[in-house]
Amino acid sequence: MQTILTIPKQLTHGDELIIVRRKEYEKLQKHLAEVRDALQKISRGEKELHNGKIKPIHSLSDLDK
Fold first, then answer.
1. Mapped to the 3 state alphabet, what secondary structure does the chain carry?
2. Residue 19 and residue 17: Cα distance in Å, rounded?
3. 54 versus 38: which is more confidently predicted?
4. Residues 6 or more apart in contact with residue 56 via CB below 8 angstroms
5. Mean pLDDT, rounded, for 20-25
6. Which end of the chain is more exposed for a tag (fewer CB within 10 A), N or C?
7. Whole-model pTM above 0.85?
8. What is the mean pLDDT of residues 6-33?
9. d(C-alpha 8, C-alpha 47), whole Å
């Protein structure tokens, strides 16, 4: 199990900080970038659907049309 250290607010002038390993931080940063990318793609798709640029399909047979 990972050890999590919390730095008291008194030492950081009101901010509460945590310390994590670099590997874990980089993993979280990568995950955040992937989530942002996915949300941007979803947003772009919703706009295109709203503007009529794409046609929704209800089954795979609709792809042939």
1. CCCCEEECCCCCCCCCEEECCHHHHHHHHHHHHHHHHHHHHHHHHHHHHHCCCCCCCCCHHHHHC
2. 7
3. 38
4. 49
5. 90
6. N
7. no
8. 88
9. 45
Q: In sequence order, which residues have a C-beta less than 8 Å from that of residue 65 and are 6 or more positions away?
A: none
Tokens describing residue 65 = 């049309």
Does residue 35 register a pLDDT over 70? yes
Buried/exposed 21-60: b ≥16 CB within 10 Å, e otherwise: eeeeeeeeeeeeeeeeeeeeeeeeeeeeeeeeeeeeeeee
